[in-house]
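User: Fold this; tokens only.

Assistant: Input:
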Amino acid sequence: MTRVAIAGLGAIGRALARRLTDGMAGLTLACAAVGDRAKAQAWLDREGIACPLVEPEEFPARADLAVECAPAAAIERICQPMLTAGKKVMVLSCGALLERSHLFDLAKANGGQIIVPTGALLGLDAVTAAAEGTIHSVRMTTRKPPNGLAGAPHLVKNNISVDGLNEAKRVFKGTAREAAIGFPANVNVAAALSLAGIGPDRTTIEIWADPGVDRNLHSIEVEADSASFTLTIANIPSENPRTGKITALSVLAALRKLHAPYRIGT
């Protein structure tokens, strides 16, 4: 059995806790870490889920794999203990990894592993395969309902308002690295795309606040020596408008592969 720790019991963490409690072959819910223990315990009690609430530093003693679905600022506390112990961490706030290359070094030095699930994107298999050859360019366009971008540091810093929009407004154009800093809770997809392909400084992204959409739309254009392809996905938001419903399902699919008798995809 793979013992799973969950960091964060928001929309994704709760979906994961429910499914692990219902039963997934070879997987068991070991513990969780949260910011508000009283709120989390009340939810666990209502759901009938038995799960010890601990500090992230206790994960290595209790779990084989930790799933990070917490605010990006907590990534060090979640990853460092597990990687130092040679264990696995599944990271959803992968934008935070772009400025923390030492975590990759820590994993390599201790035999640990950082896993970035596909999340709200699609086609990372194709991008990863193309990266074995030569990728010439990767361009991404994200459109979200304005409330899915509200409060992002880039908007606050540059005094960009997305309130009361009557038409789509481009609020960012730049690299995936810059997007990860400016929109840490909104476009982790861009960071995942850059890690799969040509890196955060060559992967470019436009972000639009669009009152005409009710889903999170991501479009990717890749030019490589092996293929040219365009990928588009329209994600239904979860109870957290910044996160698509498919993100939690992507984590579950990645966990299921750990013990599956067969695996599909690169």
